[in-house]
Amino acid sequence: MAFANFKQQMRRAIDNVDLQTSQSIRKIVFECFSGVVLMSPVDTGRFRGNWRPGLGSYPEGTVDTVDWSGGKTVAEIDREIESMPIDGRSIFLVNNLPYAQRLEYESHSKQAPNGMVRVTLSRIAAKYGA
Fold first, then answer.
1. Cα(33)–Cα(122) distance, rounded to whole angstroms?
2. Which tens digits make up the pLDDT trace of 17-52?
3. Which of 100, 98, 128, 91 lies closest to 37, judged by CA?
4. Does residue 6 form part of some domain?
5. Are 110 and 43 in contact (CB under 8 A)?
6. Which has the closest alpha carbon to 94: 49, 51, 62?
7. What's the rounded Cα separation, in Å, for the pair 89 and 115?
8. What pairs with residue 122 in β-bridges?
9. How many CB atoms are closer than 10 A to CB 118?
10. DSSP output for the chain
């Protein structure tokens, strides 16, 4: 009887840790992804609207979404992250527009001269001690 009770308590504790871990991962992934979107330079709004998350593989192609503020894209990313299983697979954020790499690495934008991804990852790493 005592062993069965201990086993149930351990199962509840493990489930609680799993839930807290998943919630923490989602929070950090969302903070990182939304940071990248909101740091993205805006000309036509198409670049901000083309950030897309993927689980286990890179999303392919581009979309016709125009998002000047980034709010629509951030909301969509939030919905997708919340529905993703946190199961050890990599979670990606991809922008497949042909000029995305130039914006990130070649200082093609006065709005984001140091890129968006590298700056956001550096900020997240400093905040969470990675």
1. 13
2. 889 999 999 999 999 999 999 999 999 999 999 999
3. 100
4. no
5. no
6. 51
7. 26
8. none
9. 12
10. -HHHHHHHHHHHHHHHHHHHHHHHHHHHHHHHHHHHHHHS--SSSHHHHT-EEEESS---S------SSSHHHHHHHHHHHHHS--SS--EEEE--STTHHHHHHS---SSSTT-SHHHHHHHHHHHHT-
Number of domains in the chain: 1
Domain that holds residue 98: 15-128
Structural tokens at position 55: 């689980």
**Under 8 Å between Cβ of 28 and 128:** yes
| Residue 51 falls inside a structural domain | yes
Instruction: Assess if residue 9 is contained within a domain.
Output: no
* Positive/negative CA dihedral, 115, 121, 125, 130: negative
In tens, the pLDDT along 54-93 reads 999 999 999 999 999 999 999 999 999 999 999 999 999 9
Joined tokens for residue 56? 């286990």
Q: How far is CA 91 from the centre of its chain?
A: 7
Which residues on neighbouring strands pair with residue 93, listed in sequence order?
53
Is residue 53 within 8 A of residue 73, CB to CB? The reply is no
